[in-house]
Amino acid sequence: WRTHAITQMVSQQNRTKQFLTLYQELKRCQLNPIVIKGIVLRKLFPTPDFRTSQDEDLLIPKEDLEKYDLILRRLGFKKENSSFQDEELSYSLEETGFHLELHTKLFKSRSVCAGMNSWFTQCFQEYKEIKIQGQKVRTLKDTEHLMYLIGHCFQHFACCGFGVRQLADLALYAKAYANAIDWGKVESFTRECGLYEFWQVLLSMQQQYLCMIPEKIGMPRQIWSGNLDTEIFMKDVLEGGVYGKSSLERVYSGNLMQSALSHQ
User: Fold this and answer.
1) Residue 127 phi/psi, 5° resolution?
2) Is the pTM above the cut of 0.85?
3) For the chain, where are the alpha helices, taking DSSP H only?
4) What is the 3-state secondary structure (H, E, C) of 202-244?
5) Which residues contact 75 (CB under 8 A, 6 or more apart)?
6) By Cβ atoms counted within 10 A, which residue in 6, 7, 23, 239 is the most buried?
7) In this prediction, what percent of the chain has a pLDDT beyond 70?
8) Mean pLDDT on 122-133
């Protein structure tokens, strides 16, 4: 286990360097993608490289797809999708295992979360910049990023499920940016998108298991419904592993769930 952990950490360090190098090259080519999840969340952990990512995600304007494709191919990336019509394109560097995903929408049009996209229409006009290892990268503003993380978490839950890492991501993000987040907007987002009860269960789990006390992080107490019984939910999170795909049964049931949800 120790050898495996060290190997993962070193691999993550290499992937982080590759991503930052790639990001600077994209900026040099007058492209400014929005970085979501991954490296932005890793920055919040006491030891960032302990929070490994399978890939890095960029939100880009659809009209720039061909520009990104040309640059990535020039840099040796192999495209894993076959059509520019896709809203999510995957690229990889085979020699290093570095994986990159380009998104033209935060939530796929055919997913159960498609309606949430209307809350993120100004991402390319209204963004923020953060420093990662001395380099500036663009990402979503604090409120919008938290909203996206909640929606993304639900998207995983409605498929195979999600693991403890996503719960930790949410807790650390809320703790880091509590004073800058528009909690009223987050509540409106969860209510209008049918996520309010789901969000309240997440908050209860973060309080019960991750010691995230509202008063200690500047989160308004009135947005909490109170402590809910989360034992069954937490059991599912622990069984889900890191990505919710800890067994073939979960993966298969996720396919059935997505099919049922997409047809209402």
Assistant:
1) -140, 180
2) yes
3) 2-28, 38-42, 65-74, 142-157, 164-177, 183-192, 196-210, 214-217, 231-239, 248-262
4) HHHHHHHHHCCCHHHHCCCHHHCCCCCCCHHHHHHHHHCCCCC
5) 22, 25
6) 23
7) 97
8) 94
